[in-house]
Amino acid sequence: MFETAGKSLDPTDWTAFRIQAHKMLDDMLDYTEGLNARDVWQPMPDDVQAHLRSSLTEKNLVETHADFMQNILPYAVGNAHPRFVGWVHGGGTPVGMMAEMLAAGLNANLGGRNQAPVEIERQVMRWVRDLFGFPATASGLFVTGTSMANLIGCLCAKTKFLGTETRQIGLQNFPKLTAYTSTAAHISVAQALDISGIGTNALRKIPVNANYEINVFALEQAIIADKQAGKTPFLVVATVGTVDVGAIDDLQKIAVLCQREKIWFHIDGAFGALAMLAPEIAPRLAGIELADSIAFDFHKWGQVPYDAGFVLVRDSDIHQKTFASPAAYLQRQERGLSANSPWACDLGLDLSRGFRALKTWFTLSVYGNEKLGQVVAHTCELAQYLKQRIEATPELELLAPVALNIVCFRYRCEDANRVNTELVIQLQESGIVAPSSTTLNGNVAIRAAIVNHRTTENDIDILLATTLKFGNALTLNNTL
Ligand SMILES: *Cc1c(COP(=O)(O)O)cnc(C)c1O
Q: Which helix (H) or strand (E) holds 397?
């Protein structure tokens, strides 16, 4: 079955292929429709693991798909499931899934050139620009995720301070740059300093207040002290939605400080930036429109299937100077396929790029800003509901303020760190619900990040009931 035509990889029998293709689509729709009845996650059994670790074997399409259904699909992380509340993972949507199929069929390469897919990416960029109140001079593009987007922000900031010369001579003449972020910042901020060659020693980790927001006064003092010591503060990275607890830094104050001190103001808004879609939350992000660059993910709160990160840069001139390179085969023309500058390869590290814009464009088009904003607001309401239930339950203890959609708590007991670590693992292994754990001020927390549009109040009730049940069993029988 599924002979190919000569040297081509296309089938000879398109009718048979079509039937199989429809079955594959139906299987995935069945999976999505039936998510609630499945385990959130289950560990790979030994035989499955052994099978997957053996060498790749050749099989026909029907057999290969059967292998997928049996050995791959049941053992993914489970973030499509309504009771996945571990880490900040989006749930995906059937619309996004279908759009991804269309993009794969078109097999567009979004590195550049004169083609409609590039216009779709630009259309999404203008939507992003409007959402964040950026001027028409801004530019932006899809990247893998916020880790890459943070790196691009950092590199643009470097260009602003040092010009393009360092692209040839490196940083050896410029040892004095310093950057600032809070102790609650994501690891990719330090990584951006690392990869850009500036080095993580140049990154000052400013303390946070009781709400896990950067202490702006301490930030200001650090900048002043570095200037007095002959350093060149060049970059402040604020966070909208810290990874542990979802805190929002005071963007307005930081913007004023950065303007006064002439420092590049980058925002890591990986999941939190899309809170701009929810009218009841957006005012808390005031000042976002003053940033020099913003990094965020459509694949988290935006529910677009992985991966779909985005970076927006206020000054497209600096953005292009940071990445554009002359290469003979990438030369531009006025007409033909080589027209339509600037290309994405002038704005980022990748030359060959998939059509991430299409699944995002479909998501924005089909669901619309209002509906997507309601998803954001609803997950925050669920977080408040969970918080209230925790506060009303004597066995449980809230460990951090709940600013957005992340709730950190623990089961109260002796030896709490050990018990809560084990409790989270047992919850995950039960297949009933999957939170993650983190450590806050030395305390191990059960961390529920409510991101998925499918999650309901009933799922939160199940999370609570199962946590209590497992917590009681662990402490009563002292089974550790
Ligand atoms: C998820 C996250 C990142 C990293 O984003 P990726 O898309 O995983 O690269 C960075 N910062 C914060 C605050 C995040 O939540």
A: strand 396-398
Structurally, at CATH architecture level, domain 369-477 sits in: Alpha-Beta Complex (3.90)
pLDDT greater than 60 at residue 443: yes
Q: Where are the domains of the chain?
A: 14-77, 109-354, 369-477
In the block, residue with structure tokens 């081509």: 8
Q: Are 471 and 427 in contact (CB under 8 A)?
A: no
Which fold does the domain 109-354 belong to in CATH? Aspartate Aminotransferase; domain 2 (3.40.640)
- Mean pLDDT within 110-136: 97
Q: Given a cut of 70, is residue 479 above it in pLDDT?
A: no
Per-residue pLDDT of 85-109, as tens digits, reads: 999 999 999 999 999 999 999 999 9
Best residue among 189, 297, 299 to mutate for probing ligand 1's pocket (most ligand atoms within 8 Å of CB) is 297
What local confidence, expressed as pLDDT, does residue 329 receive?
A: 73
Task: Identify the residue whose C-alpha is closest to ligand 1 atom 5.
Answer: 146
**Which residues line ligand 1 at a C-beta cut-off of 6 Å?**
88, 145-147, 186, 188, 239, 241-243, 268, 270-271, 297, 309
Task: Tell which residue, 198, 159, 162, 160, has the closest CA to residue 180.
Answer: 198
Q: What's residue 239's pLDDT?
A: 98
Count Cα neighbours of 425 within 13 Å in the Cβ-side half-sphere: 9
- CB of 180 closer than 8 Å to CB of 204: yes
- The reported pLDDT for the residue numbered 478 is 61
Reading the block at residue 342, the tokens are 């600037």
pLDDT tens digits for 411-432?
A: 999 999 999 999 999 999 999 9
Q: Which of 263, 276, 73 is nearest to 177 (CA)?
A: 263
Q: How high does pLDDT run on average in the chain?
A: 96
Buried b (16+ CB within 10 A) or exposed e, 70-91: ebeebbeebbbbbbbbbbbbbb
Run of H or E residues at 108: none
Looking at residue 480, its pLDDT comes to 55
Q: Which residues pair with 377 in a beta bridge?
A: none
What pLDDT, on the 0 to 100 scale, is given for residue 196?
96
What is the greatest pairwise CA distance in the chain?
76
Question: Ligand 1 pocket: which of 188, 299, 311, 450 to mutate (most atoms <8 Å of CB)?
Answer: 188
Amino acid of residue 443: N
